[in-house]
Amino acid sequence: MHFLVTGGAGFIGSNMTDRLLSLGHKVTVYDGFITGHREYLKEASKNPAFNLIEARLEDEDVLGEAMKGVDFVFHFAANADVRRGLEHPLKDLEQNTINTARVLEAMRKNGVKRIGFSSTGSVYGEAEVIPTPEDAPFPVQTSLYAASKVAGEGLIQAYCEGYDFQGYIFRFVSILGERYPHGHVYDFYKKLKEDPTSLYILGDGHQKKSYLYVGDCLDAILTVIDSCTDKVNIFNLGTDEYCEVNDSVGWITKRMGVTPTLSYSGGSRGWIGDNPFIYLDTEKVRALGWKPKYTIEQAVIKTVEYIMENEWLIE
Predict the structure, then answer these.
(1) Can you give the pTM of this predicted structure?
(2) How much is the pLDDT for 204?
């Protein structure tokens, strides 16, 4: 098959690119290198089945040309800065929602019918049902990022209904692992490199979070697209456990060999839109035979070790 991966120079996109190439597929990466890294495509670029198109999704003519001959689109390109969303309120709309519409239109004009979309468990807001299943009632949205992803999901579902597309919507917990470029492990590591004696933590440290190793995430995605043929396929992706922020801090500091004094901003949320308890019900994807190979602790440690070996990321 010929896959097009938007955001293919990013964290999940580049890992998916390598996986697809290893399975013998042809892959076109479409990336404007706003947050993507060329280093992530170093191995892929050696493969004759790999093609890179350096352009932004706003370049609609280029995007349309990129769609020619494509069988399946993985749309990973997005602004993922949840925490600072209120500082640039139009960015999520423009980069997540409107660009998703651009991808769908380019697909429609070129007869491409299948799309995999990276949504988020944040669409459930502060869910009343824990663990949260795919059919949980949607609450009031608490972040602009999640709101933009809900809109993207809606657009995909409408194209599936109106233009006979086949959509795969994946609601992730936070993903960890190799090429991880931002988030709590990255932030804590960077702070501890600057000052290993102290660590300031947003919230009270008791926020409950679930995480998933990137390799397990890819396994789940490919299991779903190989197994499911419905018009719209919505799946939670996560582990069957969660941890507190304090647990993660303990794993990170132990692996780094530091014993900082911890201080907290206080409150149950680190910032506006920070969900104090994220734990998704993954029975639906597990029924397909998938299960994660790594625990949250193992995923955190693997992420720390990757950053230790690639400190250019924090420099």
Answers:
(1) 0.95
(2) 95
